[in-house]
Amino acid sequence: MKQGTVKFFNATKGFGFIVDSETNNEIFVHISGCIDEIRENDQVQFEVEEGRRGLNAVNVQLS
After folding, report:
1. What is the pLDDT of residue 34?
2. DSSP state, 48?
3. Rounded CA gap, 41 and 18, in Å?
4. What is the Cα 36 distance to its own chain's centre?
5. Helix or strand or coil: residue 53?
6. What residues contact residue 1 under an 8 Å CB cut-off, 6+ apart?
7. CA distances from 50 to 27, 33, 54, 58 (A)
8. 24-57 pLDDT per residue, tens
9. What is the C-alpha separation between 15 and 49, in angstroms, rounded?
10. DSSP 3-state assignment of 33?
11. Where exactly are the structural domains of the chain?
12. Among 3, 56, 5, 63, which Cα is nearest to 32's?
């Protein structure tokens, strides 16, 4: 699993972005891909899948 930090997350709209610790790339995250409830600046573990518009973080959980 990859490691990263939640850069932005809007709980009302249900999406945000995670910065990958290795690559510094921003990866889109939707609330449907979250195992745990996340907030901005949380340290998380996640997997990456190809979505319709690019990479999506899935199986996101607090680390």
Report:
1. 98
2. E
3. 9
4. 11
5. coil
6. 45, 46, 47, 59
7. 11, 13, 6, 10
8. 999 999 999 999 999 999 999 999 999 999 999 9
9. 15
10. helix
11. 2-62
12. 56
Q: Which two tokens stand for residue 12?
A: 């009302």
CATH code assigned to 2-62: 2.40.50.140
The residue whose two tokens read 């999406």 is: 15
Is residue 34 helix, strand or coil? strand
Determine the residue type at 43.
Answer: Q
The token pair that represents 16 in the structure block: 């945000």
Rounded Cα distance between 41 and 5, Å, is 6
With a CB cutoff of 8 Å and minimum separation 6, the contacts of 52 are none
The pLDDT tens digits of the residues spanning 4-29 come to: 999 999 999 999 999 999 999 999 99
